Amino acid sequence: MKRSISVVAVLGTLAGTAGAQTTISVYGSVDLAVRHQTNVVAPPDLGTPVGSATAMVTGYDYINHLGFRGVEDLGGGWNARFNLVAGFVPDTGSLDNAAGRLFNRNATVGLGGPWGMVDIGHQYSAGYRTMAPYEALSAKLPAVNPTVFLAPGGTTPGCRPITAGACARFDNDIQYTGVFGGLTLRAEYAFGEAPGSDTTGSAVGIGVNYTKGPFLIGATYTKQKAGAAIPPNPPAFPNYPGIARDADKTDYSFGGAYNRGPWRLAVGYAVHKADTIGGDTTIKGRWTGVTYNFSPAFSLAGAYYQVKLSTVALPVFRPDGKEKVDAGFLVARYALSKRTSLYAEIDRNNWSNGANFARKANAAEGLGVTQDGISIGITHLF
């Protein structure tokens, strides 16, 4: 539920005597769960599993955030807008990012009109926004969903060292969104802001969705140039010393969804490639998801993901440099009201070929083991 304040903004003498109405909304979510997981290893990312672990996890089904959104009607179908979103950790009350950014989830200002919208600032990449409608779980379960490691983005400190996609956002981003009937087009350019070069650290991306009746299809492409704007490998991941963050990266994906009555079906495929020390690193992912709504309040969703990593820069565990994880999820959700819902989730992650490349909530992965997890939580939207 959004709290809105409407005011009449009287323009100054330079703008004449016209008035404009501004609507400001405060919104957000609080999500907490208790999760039990097997085969947990002690950080940093290496070693033999020491046993099971049970802990409270935050933002498990829905990212915890506090947002402020404003829209000013400029007349003639045009509007000015802003959106500021802060992520937080409700079990401690702290910000949810090590860099200490206040509005780490979104900080944009822009203009909208008959031909679309342009937003500038720190925001989700065009690729991520395009992928979400055909993601297996509609981009839910962000704490454990493997797809977040394949979404383009990542000029934010603290992102994954192998793939920039875990953050799924760009700094210094100009993004256009246009809706033309069933066609939604997104295009972006993110500045690298490197002295002496306009391209170093920059990114360009495009995403297209097309909807007709119950069917949706989509595709994305993003190219990110190496540069100082990309944070270096953090020391918390010593098992990947040969994989540099500072590398040219290419991401693309395609997929589709079918929504009819109580059913939702989704399939997709995504690839992330990085030019790394000694050769390319490639991460490929595919997914399938099914959701059935038994009633407006109760739904059941199942999903399967397979993510493969291949690199000549990783002889640490496998001479062939190939790793894989197969992940399955079953999620039940029950809405107590329009704002509050309960959820229960079980999952299995099978790490093969020494796979150890994607963090999960409340666990660093074992080397080539199977992990089972169960989570029970509550989400409140406001």
From TrEMBL:
It is found in: Cell outer membrane. Gene3D superfamilies: Porin. GO terms for molecular function: porin activity. This is Porin. One of its GO terms (biological process) is monoatomic ion transport. GO terms for cellular component: cell outer membrane; pore complex. Homotrimer. Residues 8-350 form the Porin domain. CDD domains: gram_neg_porins. Keywords: Cell outer membrane, Ion transport, Membrane, Porin, Signal, Transmembrane, Transmembrane beta strand, Transport. InterPro entries: Gram-neg_bact_OMP, Gram_neg_porin_domain, Porin_dom_sf. It comes from Massilia cavernae. It is a multi-pass membrane protein. Residues 1-20 form the signal peptide. SUPFAM superfamilies: Porins (SSF56935).
